[in-house]
Request: fold
Amino acid sequence: MKVDLLSLRAGAERARGLAVVIDVFRAFTTAPVLFDLGVEKLYLVGPPEDGLKLKEKDPGLILVGEVSGVPIEGYDFGNCPSDILSRDPAMFAGRAAVLRTSAGVQGTLLALENADEVLLAGYVTARATAQYVMAKDPDQVSIVAMGRNMEERAPEDENCALYIAHLLGQAEYDHRRAVKELLFSPTTKLFLDRDRPYMPPHDPIVCLQRDLYHRAIKAEKGGGMVVARPAN
Reply:
């Protein structure tokens, strides 16, 4: 198994083999939270307008997303896992949702162009993701840390990529060192900025939990859409 550690837009475009797209803050923490609350599938979209068009056809869809971190007008939720966790689980059970984000989702759409298979990952699903990869035992694995808006490296994504590579036996990883870095990183501090109420301080508490959920998440093309579901 050859494991490549990649980053940002260029990394997503270079992904080959089995790709693992990482977005810790916050898309691929939000996704497993939604599945754990009972959502059955996630449509991943590029332009925010695509989600609104889908809801016109299916009013039962839950729209979740952001542009540069800011919630999208007309969507039901921002990309905020702690907010979603605070809601009644009954409102999610058995429904489908749309997820639009500026890094993780867009990186997934790019990776699907050339990779054989694409998984969505963060700290909360890292071990489940690694177990899925090991079971598949592909020749090539591309682990892509998406960073902020696919343009700026983010320590939470880079460290999560190392953690998954470590679980695959391909890298060294020290979680104590990672936690120390992440607690005081610029991206974590954004959640303490009172000018950004859509980025609450509760979110990093959720996003930095290791191995909270036990199912990997896979994105696939089908019927002109990209759909993410828990992997078998």
Q: What stands out?
A: The first strand starts at residue 2 and ends at 7. The chain has a mean pLDDT of 97. The first helix runs from residue 8 to 14. The CA atoms of residues 15 and 147 lie 15 Å apart.
